[in-house]
Amino acid sequence: MNHSSVDLLETVEDLENLETEMTQKPKETTPLPLRQMMMIFIVTFVEPVQFGVIFPFVYFMVKDFGIAKDDRSLGVYVGMLSSVFCVAQLFTSLPWGWVSDRVGRRPVIIIGLLGNAVFCTLFGSSKTFAFAMVMRSLCGFLNGNVGVVKSMIGELTDSSNRGLAFAFWQTAYGLGAIVGPMLGGLLVNPVEQFPGIFGNSQLFKEYPYLLPCLVGSFFSIVGAILGILLLEETLKTKSTRSSISNSTFNEEEMPLLQDECIDIPEENLTFKQTMTKEVQLSILLYGIWCLINIIYEEVYTLFVAEPLSAGGLQFTAFDIGTTLSISGFVELFGQIVIFPMLLKCLSLVNVFRISAALMAIFSIALPFCSDFARSLINTGTSEYTPEQKSAVFWLLFLLLAGKTLASVTGYIPVIMFVNDSAPTSSTLGTVHGCGQMTASFMRGVGPIIGGSLWSWSLSNNLYFPFDHHFTFGVVALLSVLGIVQSYRLEKNLRKQ
Description:
The protein has 22 helices and no strands. The longest helix has about 35 residues, at about 385-420. α7 crosses α21 (about 430-460). It starts with a helix and ends with a helix. It is globular, with a radius of gyration of 24 Å. About 50% of the residues are buried. The chain is mainly alpha-helical. Helices cover about 75% and strands about 0% of the residues.
């Protein structure tokens, strides 16, 4: 058999393996390297803490800056401040992925953690909108960790345990999603919330948003120290590859599953060769899912903080932090219990489709909480009784819990699609860098789109569905688009 025939057979086998991973569960599972996975867990945990710590108080922070003319126009500025972190990541995710493919995953991760610690602290000391924008963007510029960590997982796992590893990664992200908003809601303005402890603190009187950012930065510093001491490099060096290539193997002595047991030397692919049709379709689906979730998350905080008369729920920063933290526990439940159950019964692509359909349903339902709240409150007053607020809170929690389960069971499949679409293991960093760049773009424009649509819906004086329901309807339509894209991805695999 000539060389070109062998290459053709290997290509066909790779495509068949990729489609198999999307449609069925492996029979045997390789044990995960627990020490490395624990380090990845810790590093991953820091990212959502840093990203989510501002959400409970960003509405009130921007309001204190005095930049908006009225409450209805706050959404645009809140969206800009929320999105600038991801806009900055858009320009650096691919370069960080490229760097990690050449110098290693470990140094890139440590730089990201230390950069987050410095600039998150400075963000908490912001007194102007411009300074806050600059500090938040610098956090994003120095942070390429999400794509790099995914590359590490791809290098540490095989097809039998990759789903479990990404679920483990998503669990770490979910824990961070609990702690971040909890810190933001609980520790904001400590002089008023904890007068017995911080009542005489001039520092926190002057900077009411500093304490949650300081605590978030502490997690980054701990992660960096542990990374320096314990995190091992997963990128194979050139010397390792050359030693393998110089070795002589008898065909009978080589393992049957040599692609998983031995690091066979791989030809360096160009960027164009790396970006195959499967990679492009997988990354596009990942981007759509990120856009759906970031618009929802951005508008959720605006919706919950907005006055009842404007179509919101009139909750405080502490209330917002509480709801987001509780939803984080639901996210963990989805990762640990619900997703594995679904994967036993369904293919990855069908798990995603069900998740997208549920996302559409719960997004449409959420703004009816405001209608329910206004129906409870007597005419002529805008204040809740404790019983009324409790009723609204639990309805909000049920709808948010449903959305959270849909979100997490949709995220794991799309991340696995991106990982498994990489042509070779040596292109994982580039592929995940492109994926993270796409995600950062969506997470950058998402808050601006969501904040602008929300502000428009409150000021247009139109009726349902163009009032406070409108933006959540847009999220539902995007969810349907995600389902359509999943069929395009599956169709392309079958053609191959």
